Amino acid sequence: MPDVRLASSQGKWILLTTVLGSAMVMLDSTVVNVALPRIGRDLDADLAALQWTVNAYMVTLAGLILLGGSLGDRYGRRKVFVLGVVWFAAASLLCGVAPGPTVLIAARALQGIGGALLTPGSLALIQASFHPDDRSRAVGLWSGFGGIGAAVGPFIGGWLVAGPGWRWVFLLNVPLALLCVPVALRHVPESADARAHGRFDVLGAVLGALALALLTYALIEARGGSAVVAVTAVAGVAAAVAFVRVERHRADPMLPPDVFASRQFTAVNLVTLCVYAAFGGFFFLTALQLQVVAGYSPPAAGAALLPTTALMLLFSARSGALADRTGPRLPLTAGPLLCAAAMLLMLRVGADADYLTDVLPALLVMGAGMVTLVAPLTASVLASVDAGRAGLASGINNAAARAAGLVAVAALPLLAGMGPEAYRSPAAFDAAFGRAMPVCAGVLVLGSLLAFALVRRPGPGCRRPECRTHGSVAAPPLEAGGRG
């Protein structure tokens, strides 16, 4: 049984290690959107290249995050976590020195692999190291500090873009890694799961990531309507079908199909797909709208997004407690509707938009909606499966959210009629943004209807989330599987 106490010197070092590791991923997931306009101008990149700058990272992260957690259980959580930190930092360095869009996109894909190794590893280290009496408090501190990183990330990113340059958005990860790795090797105990067995589902992970990559390419390049796009789309569907077949027939699948036998689990993941698709499209386009159309500087655009994450940090735990009393159906129905209203309010954000009267009201409503739904969503996922599969269920839900976000970033500009050079023209981008926000709102309304029709109150004695404070807008919080 793990026996490190949080108040001990070693406990504080372990917490620092996990916070530093998760902060690298958390910062990167929030600051890059703010840097996109400057990246596009400096590298002479079109809109498709900017979409890939976001999505190359999300493809590998979403496709491999379940495998990353399994590797830590088998080979040692500290070992895989440190490997992830080093990999992520090396890929960040490559991003920072990239001479053009192609190298940057490839480096972002490599970053996602590192993120898939260290993201589940940071929470697993807490689960495996701390005494059970201190574990919940350690998870709370870890998630709280991570949420602070998510909140200040866009502002830091904007400041770096306007000052030293966008490359420092990525280079910042290198000193964080140089601090994190020695501390991990010196102070964090190694742990593994003696019950981990069977072969790794590498084929399933590769097919899943390949399907996401091919379908994303087809959506981003669909404006051209070429035969290559059609072939890529067909190949993506074929890879997705092959992924499902492999998972159904493997002895130890990465994504066990029987977990979807729970109607509640399936319903909550359908809601997740809707809401995080809308969130992914919203935050991608809003960071551009504020700079390209409203004329905000990168620091101002980054700071403008702070209220949403701040509200989540302040009230997510209370929202979870309220949902425990009311059941998840009401918050999962009302939350998406609030977010849909926020996206319609964003239609007021145009040229020379005033922050207090045009931008802030929409972001406050958006934050209220996310506060309402994120904690109950996580609780519903955990409550819908056996306690022993909590980590798996949370990982699937987290991966589904990230996959939904990357598909939205690929598809939404196409649906809104954005041309390759749209972000260089304020008028063209503003018009397309005005078409995109109602699409996002419609997807959220669909999520609300699904929640109202399908989500039910869980039975007594079900697993409750350990991570009650949350600030990430990219995906729901991960939960550990409870194995020490």
From TrEMBL:
PROSITE patterns: MFS. It is found in: Cell membrane. GO terms for cellular component: plasma membrane. The chain crosses the membrane at residues 12-36, 48-68, 80-99, 105-126, 138-162, 168-188, 200-220, 226-246, 267-288, 300-318, 330-351, 363-387, 399-416, 436-455. One of its GO terms (biological process) is response to antibiotic. Its main location: membrane. Residues 14-459 form the Major facilitator superfamily (MFS) profile domain. One of its GO terms (molecular function) is transmembrane transporter activity. NCBIfam families: efflux_EmrB. This is MFS transporter. The lineage of its organism: Bacteria, Bacillati, Actinomycetota, Actinomycetes, Kitasatosporales.
